[in-house]
Amino acid sequence: KQTLGKSPHSYLLDRRLGRARDLLRDPTRSLSDIALACGFASQAHMATVFKQRLGVSPSGLRRT
After folding, report:
1. How far is CA 39 from the centre of its chain?
2. Got the DSSP string for 4-59?
3. Please, are residues 31 and 43 in contact by the beta-carbon 8 Å criterion?
4. Fewer beta carbons under 10 A from the terminal one: N or C of the chain?
5. pTM for the complete prediction?
6. Whole-angstrom Cα Rg for the chain
7. Contact 51, 15 (CB under 8 A)
């Protein structure tokens, strides 16, 4: 925590979200496949974390 300035869980979620954002650029990949590839338990869990941390849903981010 001292090294990263955040908790290990928070760091892990940030890394997962970063990977998910990269994968969202591929319109052929489904949101559920992206969620599982990034280590989220489900698409719903990924969507919840996206909204909490980024203020937008994965599908909303994909549209922009």
Report:
1. 9
2. TSS-HHHHHHHHHHHHHHHHTT-TTS-HHHHHHHTT-S-HHHHHHHHHHHHSS-HH
3. yes
4. C
5. 0.86
6. 12
7. no
CA proximity to 25, closest of 37, 16, 34: 34
Record the tokens describing residue 32, joined without a space: 């559920």
Q: Which two tokens stand for residue 15?
A: 């890394």
pLDDT tens per residue across all 64 residues of the chain:
888 889 999 999 999 999 999 999 999 999 999 999 999 999 999 999 999 999 999 999 998 8
How deeply is 47 buried, as exposed, middle or buried, from its count of CB atoms within 10 A (0-12, 13-18, 19+)?
middle
